[in-house]
Design brief:
By secondary structure, this protein is α/β, with parallel strands linked by helices. It has twelve helices and 15 strands. Strand 1 (5-10), helix 1 (14-24) and strand 2 (31-37) form a beta-alpha-beta unit. It is globular, with a radius of gyration of 23 Å.
Length: 387
């Protein structure tokens, strides 16, 4: 390998095009475009403009010797098979989210990647590069705020008008995409939520399928999860909220964190554990509290920080980190094996809503999920069932 990692881009759509732009503009100095692959022959012009080889078959690109690694910006069901093929032929793999549509499929890729320890296998969780979430994860894991009590994430900034779903025949179908907002728009938040707060044990969900869009898959989700030891969480997402909300709250024994729009964080730290504060407060302090005479600064401190955002910076950082991992210089920020958590939670939310009961995440019944998914694929009558 030379000084730079030669990346093969499989699928030159919106995402693949953005990665090509970032690399060609020098935003990822340790990476070059090795080749481009797309099933549409007309995309060859873009490859010609960049001066790189073009392929319509990704297996030919992998075998060409033109690439050291590939990124899979293709429909979700294809991520595992393309990742496995690349790794099988000695090429590093960076797969787009989600790593698979269902856990059995995702595990096949993850298990195969584990048999190739000399190759890098990453998942494109670009929001893990956001310093806000990196700092938040460090804060929660440090134990400074105590144990988790409750967390909620309302992420409804995914407004999609009806024509969006008409762009491709596979969109918003069980057989082509494998779901709706949970597998297309919200995987980043499903990942970050568990990355910061831990993996929940079970979930009960109420899900709307074609609630406000003419689609078969989910366009609204309300999920309640159990983290164990009394800690709970709620996750709300949809594609029909035009103004939208992005608000994450994490309540712990010694404080609270509120994140707005993924760029502003407010951290409230209690002077001592909330239960201890409650037990030690005398009657006079209670009176002053409820008459507005008690200075809340005696109980807590609050700080707010605005992290801002730069378009494309997160994606460029994932590519840079992946290239550094390939070169043996850094550990992956988002190892591919981490992708199973978001897939399993999304699957469990679906399954809970289909069965009308709480579903275990720790002991997830992936066979039942796949059976239920295939029943929906069969009802569509357009795509083959999955195994």
């Amino acid at each position: 390998m030379g000084d730079t990692v030669r990346l093969g881009i499989i699928g030159l759509g919106a995402e693949g095009g953005m990665y090509a732009k970032l690399i060609s503009e020098g935003k990822v100095p340790t990476m070059t475009i090795g080749a481009i692959c797309d099933i549409l022959p007309e995309k060859k012009q873009a490859a010609d403009d960049l001066g790189v080889p073009f392929f319509t078959d990704y297996t030919e690109m992998v075998a060409s010797g033109e690439v050291d690694a590939v990124v899979t910006t293709v429909p979700h069901y294809l991520h595992p098979e393309m990742g496995i093929h690349a790794l099988e032929h000695g090429v590093h793999a960076l797969v787009e989210k989600p790593v698979g549509v269902y856990t059995k499929q995702a595990r096949e890729l993850i298990d195969f990647a584990a048999s190739k320890p000399d190759l890098q296998f990453g998942v494109f969780f670009n929001q893990r590069t956001n310093p806000l979430y990196q700092d938040l994860r460090e804060l929660i894991s440090s134990g400074e705020l105590g144990k988790l009590r409750h967390t909620s994430w309302t992420i409804t900034t995914w407004w999609r008008p009806q024509p969006y779903y008409a762009q491709s025949a596979w969109r918003a179908t069980w057989g082509g995409e494998g779901g709706g907002v949970l597998v297309n728009q919200a995987p980043h938040q499903l990942d970050l939520w568990q990355w910061v707060c831990g993996v929940p044990r079970s979930v009960f969900a109420k899900v709307g399928y074609g609630f406000r869009r003419d689609i078969a898959v989910e366009d609204e989700v309300n999920a309640l999860v159990d983290f164990g030891e009394g800690a709970t969480g709620s996750f709300i997402t949809c594609v029909h909220d035009l103004p939208g909300t992005d608000r994450l709250e994490i309540l712990c024994d010694r404080g609270k964190v509120v994140v707005d729009d993924s760029n502003t964080v407010t951290i409230t730290r209690l002077v001592q554990d909330e239960k201890e504060l409650s037990a030690s407060m005398d009657v006079d302090a209670v009176r002053r509290l409820f008459t507005g005479q008690l200075d809340r600064a005696e109980l807590m401190t609050t700080e707010t920080k605005d992290y801002g955002s730069v378009w494309g910076a997160q994606h460029a950082e994932v590519l840079r980190n992946f290239a550094a991992a390939v070169r043996g210089e850094e550990e992956l920020l988002a190892p591919g094996a981490d992708g199973i958590h978001g897939v399993r939670l999304a699957n469990a939310i679906h399954l809970s809503s289909w069965l009308g009961r709480e579903v275990s995440i720790e002991n997830f019944d992936e066979d039942t999920y796949l059976s239920e998914l295939n029943a929906r694929i069969t009802a569509e009558g357009t795509f083959e069932t999955r195994s």
